[in-house]
Amino acid sequence: MNRKDILLERINEAIPELIRLQDTTGCFFYPYYKGNVDYCNARWQEAVLALAWISKKNKNKELDQRIEKGINFLITIQNKNGSFPEYSKKDTSFSATAFVSFSLIMTFKIMKIEIKKEWIEMLDKSLRWLSKEDETVYTNQESAAGTSLILGGLFFQNQIYIDSGLKKIHRVLDSKKAYYSENGGFDLGYSSLTLEYLGFVYNAGYLKEKIKNSVEEYYEYLLDINLEDIKNSRNTKWIILEGFEIFADKTKSGEKILNKILKLDISLDHLEREDNLCTDLYRLCFAYEHMSSLLDNKINLGNFNPEKYNGGSHKKIFNPLRRFGLHRIRSKIRLF
C-alpha cells in the first residue's frame, strides 16, 4: 500500500474508537461525564471535524447526529466572553478557543446537515474573543488563532476578523528565526503544527509569497540538522504531516523535506492517547486530502493502540489563574 492507503486505513481504524468516547449528551471528554472532574475540556469536542470528514465521504446519518450533539454540547460549556475551557471549570483558554474555532469552521464547511443559528452565534463569539487576544509564547496557538480568524472572516464575510487573523500570521512570520520558535526554542512537533496552519492560510490565498519564503527558510534549517537527534523545546515525540504535504510541491525543498520527514522513526499519526483521537485525527484526514503526488513513499505507522487519557500535562497549581487567561500572564514574562 502507498501512504495514502495507509493513512486511510488508520483513519478508518480510529473512527470507531472516537465514537466510543462520546456519550449521549454529545460530550467526548469522559472524565467529565463520568464524574471524575468538575470541568469539561472543550478541545475534545474537536472530534466533530473528523466525524464530519468521514460522514461526507460515506453519507452516514448516525455520524451526522453525533456531530449535531457534539456541537450542541459545546454551546453549554462556552464561557460568556466567547472563550472555551480546557483544564479547569473557569478556564479562559486561548488554546482551546483557537483550536475549537478552527474545527467548527472546517466542520461547517464540509458537513451536510443544516447549520443552526445558535452554532453560528457560538462561533462568532469565539472569533470575536480571539480577535482581541494574543498568544506570544506558543507560536502554534497564535497560528491556529490567526488561521481561524481568516477562515472565519471568509465564512462570515467579516473583514475585521480577516484583518485580525492576518495580523497574527504576520506576527508569527516576522518573529521566526530559522524556525518557528516554540516556548523560546525549536520543537519539531509544534513547528509542524504551525506549518499546517500556514498551509491553510496559503491555500486560502493570503500572504502567499511571504509564507512561501518563510517556509523555504524553515526547510533550509531542517535540511541542515539531524532531526533524529534534536532536543525539542516542548519534548514532543510526534510530527503533524499535513503542512509538509501541502508545501511539498510549492517550495524548492518541499519534496526533499517531505521525504526526510517520512523516513523518521517518530510518530507520524500522533494518536498516542485517547485525547489525541479527538484533537488530531482530523489532521490525518486533511493530510490524506492534501497528500502530495510527488512521492509514493510507504510509511510505517505502527500498531494502533491509543493509551487511556492520563489527565494531560497541565499543572493544577495554575488553575486559579486560568480564569484570567494564562496567555495574558505569559505575555508579561516572555515574547516569542
Beta-strand residue percentage: under 5%
Number of strands: 0
What is the overall shape? globular
Let me know the average pLDDT: 94
By DSSP (H or I, 4+ residues per run), the number of helices equals: 15
Distance between the termini: 41 Å
Name the CATH architecture: Alpha/alpha barrel
Low-confidence stretches: none
H/E series: HHHHHHHHHHHHHHH
Highest-level CATH class: Mainly Alpha
Which structural class do the helices and strands define?
mainly alpha
Share of helix, binned: 55-70%
**Domains counted in the coordinates: how many?**
1
CATH fold-level label: Glycosyltransferase
Using the CA coordinates, give the radius of gyration: 19 Å
For the biggest sheet, the summary is:
none
How is this fold's topology laid out?
Elements: H1 3-21, H2 30-33, H3 47-58, H4 61-77, H5 94-110, H6 117-130, H7 139-156, H8 159-174, H9 188-203, H10 208-224, H11 242-246, H12 254-262, H13 274-289, H14 319-322, H15 326-333
Helix pairs in contact: 1-13, 3-4, 3-5, 3-13, 5-6, 5-7, 6-7, 7-8, 7-9, 9-10, 10-12
